[in-house]
Amino acid sequence: MxxxxxxxxxxxxxxxxxxxxxxxxSNVANASTPGYARRVVSLSASVTLGHGxxxxxxxxxxxxxxxxxxxxxMAQAAASHGSTAAGFLAxxxxxxGDAGSESSLLARADAFASSLLGAMANPASVPGLTGAINAAxxxxxxxxxxxxxxxxxxxxxxxxIASAVANLNxxxxxxxxxNTAIAAGVGGRRDVSALLDQRTxxxxxxxxLVPVRELARPNGQVALVTTGGAILLxxxxxxxxxxxxxxxxxxxxxxxxxxxxxxxxxNPITTSGPRALIGGxxxxxxxxxxxxxAVTGQARLDAVARDLVERFADPALDPTRPAAAPGLFTDGxxxxxxxxEVGLSGRISLNALVDPERGGLVQxxxxxxxxxxxxxxxxxxxLVALQKGLDAARPTASPTLEPGARSFNTLLAExxxxxSVARLAAENQQAYAVTRLTALQDLExxxxxxxxxxxxxxxxxxxxxxxxxxxLQTIDELLTILLGIG
Amino acid sequence: xxxxxSAAPFMSPSLIRQSLALRQQLSTSTMEQMTGTVVDPAxxxxxxxxxxxxxxxxxxxxxxxxxxxxxAEVLAEMMQSALGVISTGAxxxxxxxxxxxxxxxxxxxxxxxxxxRQVFNTIISVLNSRISGYAIFGGVSSSSPPLPDDAAILGDxxxxxxxxxxxxxxxxxxxxxxxxxxxxxxLYSGGAPRGPVPVASGETVLLDATAMDPGxxxxxxxxxxxxxLDEGVFQGDEPARAELARAAARELVSAAEARxxxxxxxxxxxxxxxxxQARNSAERTALEVTRLAMIEADPYATATRIKDLEARLExxxxxxxxxxxxxxxxxxx
Lengths: 486, 333
Known about the structure:
Number of helices of chain A: 11
Order of helices and strands of chain B: HHHHHEEHHHEEHHHH
Strand content of chain A: 5-15%
Distance between the termini of chain A: 19 Å
Number of helices of chain B: 12
Largest interface: A-B, 67 and 59 residues
Oligomer: heterodimer
């Protein structure tokens, strides 16, 4: 009978309204949840009891723009890469010292030059000579501390890589599990929205480390591929391998095997260059820090240390010093060997012969390293020569820098400038990446939960429910009248 | 879907970033206003720090030159005043010897000789004088006085004269003793003349006078000839004494010329020091002005920017507050 059909239709209407309210309440509750996609109830007309029109809830849809999502995740990877790289270069600049700071390497070098002039003013004065020795010592300490700081950056990057790889592997496993659960849910025609949300969240955590693209697979599953072409997940999750190194020294590099590289399913892969499979995310940026930027920074610092050592080891400078003996600055107490430049800034030391704390005499700065320190105390000749030697333009021997003649100050300034230029370029790149990410996030946001819109929808659902309930009530009255006849 | 800070429709990520950027700019501008210099000099100079660091290096060296120049100034001053004292004494003796009466009259000669002995003592102690712990005329060995006391010198000299009775030979012997390597030189315990010392960029000053300077030795030689008369040389032989006194007078006159040359040399050095000091001071001012110009944050521009940012931030907060009140929830039952 048409009344029963009407009843059935009204009931289906109530159910539909209730399901809509359910989706709505979920939306409102999750308005600020990251990774949550707005639920939309998909309705269609259905046939009830052979004839008549009711409403059927097809399924709960998640409003997701897959293209936008992919783009935004890649932008996320780029922004992450940019901020990691720029952050390191800013810290490297800080290691060399900010312009104007008294503890910067440049300021220490200037103080050394000034202290030599001060000693020259009254060479008989022990405090004057001690001041020059202290300034030299301060400069040496600055170089050693800078070297240590750079190696600590490499160790920190190495540790971060290890934890990132562990997180990456765990996340890939999780996505694989979620894929299976979703496929089962879709097959059993259950609501898998919550699982989909969770999977999106896990994939986003992967996207920060490695730029990935999500590809659709049957039954709601996904495959993950990096922009470089490596397959991270397609049915089975890939596995990354990496071994952390506890202590990292300047001479340990990826090339000579002392540091671990990245392996994918047991095969070693590169993380930089045009053929890199995982280039562009935070993981690649960390490798770049450990294997490129920090190594370059260390090499430049070593070039500075080498110039300082060689400058004061010139045999023409101090006739009292035997030719084979180390000069004012030594490589850990020994003569500098040009083959051993790597890590020199961490080993550079003031010659013990002039260091009172190690049994030396400050007077040797005035009289010569090979002297007994009792020479004519008004003698300025060696001090004048030392100060001239510091400021003389000398061909730079280290292969790290462009060939040319520079004074010590010019060399140090060039190294600091190179670092600043790199930092500025990295910051510009980071700003661009962040702007792009923000623009995509804005676009994405247009599809997320808008409470005002949900409230408007709620009013409509309210009305629909009330209308259907009224229809139900009226049909009930009609049936009662009908059953009451006779 | 990234972390949404608020579900309000207008709080888009770009708006949030804008507010962050505004506040960051405000704190940067405030810092710049307080310090007067830009917060990030490297960015301000586009990464090229060469000029700035060169400037800093020059400023540091200028402060070192200040010390060397002022020490040199004091040393030169002391040298000139010492030479002044020496000249006064030697010239007074020489003037008294020029007149024939003082030479001929044995009593007057004895009186001049006695005074000359005192002046000799004064000259030696002036040559041994020290400033801030080091000897002025000691050359590079400045810790101890360069000469022994006057009695030792005259004693050594008398011994070297032995029993010479001829005043001409005596004069020659005394001159040789001061010039030779076994006499005065053996008593000199100072060091080699001082080397050049930098007092400005590219400029050095040379204050190389020691007690062994020819002008000083000649002065001492002339004074010794007279002073020895007081010590009893040629006692009783009046003509010999007179002859020696005349020789001394001639020696002192030519010594005066040599001393003038020495004082002129020191005067040139003093001029050089004064020039260097003036140059250093002017250079320091110029460098400091240039340095400020390189990294200065224009105070007017900074103040304007701060005002502008404050206004924008206030407007932003007002708009956010108003918009957040616009919720349908408030108007539903």
